Amino acid sequence: MSEAPSETPTQVPSWERLQELVATGNAEGLRDCLQALGATEVAHAVSKLATEERTAMLVLLEPADAADVIVDVPDSQAVELLGEMAPAEAAAIVDELRSDYQVDLLTSLDEAGSAAILDEMDGAEAADVRQRLSYESDTAGGLMVTEYLAFPEHLTVADVVDDMRRHGEEYSDYNVQYTYVITDVGLLAGVVPMRSLLLAGRSRSLGQLMIRDPLRVTTDAAIDELIEFFDNHGFLGVPVVDAEGRLAGVVHRREIQEAQEHQVDRTFLESRGIVGGEELRSMSVGLRSRRRLSWLSVNILLNIAAASVIAFYQDTLAAVIALAVFLPIISDMSGCSGNQAVAVSIRELTLGLVKPGELFRVLYGELRVGLINGLVLGILLGAVAALWQGNLWLGLVVGVALTLNTIVAVSLGGLIPLVLRRFDKDPALASGPILTTVTDMCGFFLVLSLASLALSKLS
Q1: How far is residue 341's CA from residue 338's CA, in Å, rounded to a whole number?
Q2: What H or E segment, with its residue span, contains residue 209?
Q3: Residue 8 predicted with pLDDT over 50
Q4: Which domains, from first to last, does the chain contain?
Q5: 3-class SS at 153?
């Protein structure tokens, strides 16, 4: 007689396990549980915890382990977690983070919270962070890391290798691809690839091995300049110097890729009406509501403006009720065409392929596409309207309106992001509502005004 199979216990969800460990104050079990989870699982589990549970969890962990959690969760949640902690506890965690990430988080905190954390940090470390906070976030100074290897040019290979062995634990977190060579006053003199260093004789000096006057960028170099630099060169990193030529840090290719991804995420959220930064459902309902309403309240006013065109032509619409079927189609199709042009312009602006002043170049390119697409779409919709109602004039009105509105939409869609960028406004945030309102108003006006002219043929 065979034994009945034993029941497999239901696995406890990771966030409930974290709750249990936090409640019992089991720091060792908490560390082991988090280490067993992937980054995505950590982020999910932490988001399920209550505010006080998240804070208690970080306090229980060693600063280095708590820093790993901070890195795994979304930036907005990391900022919230640090803001909930006592400044001394938050400072111990920030001290364990990569230098560029320290700046990202402290910049996102409110001024008082950031200052309180810096006051609790080691004096030299705090001074270094304050210096990096003085740079704009989208410049080389704001993106650089200060974890790099730099030695005076008179040192030998033996000196450098011995130093690396003595400080192996500290350097293990560095992205060591190059050794930078500096003068006695900190000026960047050269760079030695790690391969060259390891294969050279121990008695050779760095001055003999180094590549003199290497390519570099200044701390105020904009992100577009950095993107272009890495597109043109296969380097893994580029040294950053201050106005006097002193080595200040290193920007790695990875940081630029992360910055581009962040820019894409932000653009996507703003294009969907999520303004004021990243939104997570773990945030307070009031904050999420205020951020969304700031967008929606503007949009309702713009939509009222567009609807006023219909009110002006309500007699025409009442006489030819079939037009009501085609108004939203023309509005939506033109909006889609315009948004395609917006996406191309924003993409080209991001890549530096077009400048804000190149309006005629963009207009010429969009007019040609708009004319072709407008004619094709206009003929298709006009044919549908004529066959449905058996009225060629209705098809002509609808088809001409869609053709003209498509040309207007793609032209504006291509130009609006350039104009907004020229006035230092975010094209991703404002292009959508402006384009939607204009194409709606123009589409409604074209259909109803053309219908008014041909009213005797439509009735």
Answers
A1: 5
A2: helix 206-209
A3: no
A4: 14-134 (1.25.60.10), 149-253 (3.10.580.10), 285-458 (1.10.357.20)
A5: coil
pLDDT for 289-309, tens place per residue? Answer: 766 666 667 677 777 777 787
Whether residue 280 is predicted with pLDDT greater than 60 in this model: the reply is no
Residue 427: both structure tokens together: 């094209």
**Residue bearing tokens 């009442």:** 318
Q: How far apart are CA 159 and CA 203, in angstroms?
A: 9
**Predicted TM-score of the model (pTM):** 0.58
Residues comprising the chain, all counted: 459
- Count the neighbouring beta carbons within 10 Å of the beta carbon of residue 82: 26
* Number of helices (H), then strands (E), in the chain: 24, 7
If residue 29 lies in a helix (H) or strand (E), which one and from where to where?
helix 27-35
pLDDT at 378: 92
Q: Answer whether residue 269 shows pLDDT above 80.
A: no
Of 98, 138, 134, the residue nearest 114 (C-alpha): 134
Please check the confidence at residue 271 and state whether its pLDDT lies above 90: no
Q: Name the strands in the sheet holding 149-152, side by side, starting at the edge strand that comes first in the sequence.
A: 149-152, 178-182, 188-193, 211-212
Query: In this predicted structure, what is the pLDDT of residue 170?
Result: 79
Percent of the chain with pLDDT over 70: 88
Nearest to 95 by CA among 71, 72, 64: 64
Relative to beta strand 237-241, strand 217-218 is parallel
Distance separating the N- and C-terminal Cα atoms of the chain: 88
